[in-house]
Amino acid sequence: MLIDASRKRFDKIVVWSVDRLGRDMTNLVSVLNELNERGIHLFSYKQGLDTETAMGKSFFYMTGIFAELENNMRKERQQIGIKRAIAGGAKFGRKSKLDQRMMYKIRSLRDRKQSMRKIASQLNISVATVHKACSEMVVEKTGAA
């Protein structure tokens, strides 16, 4: 969008909300300054702000501050929720393919001197998964935690 703005392909940008234009206040201000330098105005549908007027420009900055505050509060709530879920035993991410049966198969194939790539191909898993299994086997043998 900013590339098209620099080429003067339009004279006004319509956004749904101010917070959709940038992640934080610094970013919003830099985008608005860049648009102002090119004579391009901004209209926020949700807030009804138009930077073509002095009042609209001022309200844009104030709305940006509150949008950043809202984003920061949402992040904090997410982090608290994630910590609470982890403390309650929740696991995040994809389930690992490395169960005991898979570890046994990988170990037996490695004992027969098969390459990691060949093991991955035979067991229909990624080479990275084979590497991870082998490194976990090394930790088991050495007794390191």
Structural commentary:
The chain is mainly alpha-helical. The protein has 2 domains: 2-87, Rossmann fold, CATH 3.40.50; 100-142. It is built from 6 helices and 3 strands, in the order αβαββαααα. The protein has helices at residues 2-6, 25-37, 54-87, 100-111, 116-123, 127-142; strands at residues 12-15, 41-44, 49-50. The protein has a 3-stranded mixed beta sheet with strand order 1-2-3, with helices on one face. β2 and β3 form a beta hairpin. The protein is elongated. The relative contact order is 0.08. The mean pLDDT is 85.
Percent of sequence in beta strands: 5-15%
Major sheet: arrangement of strands: 1-2-3
Bin the helical content: 55-70%
General form: elongated
Oligomeric state: single chain
Please outline the major beta sheet: 3 strands, mixed
Going by CATH, the homologous superfamily of the largest domain would be: Resolvase, N-terminal catalytic domain
End-to-end Cα distance: 50 Å
Mean pLDDT, all residues: 85
SS summary, helix count: 6
Radius of gyration, in Å, reads 27 Å
Structural class: mainly alpha
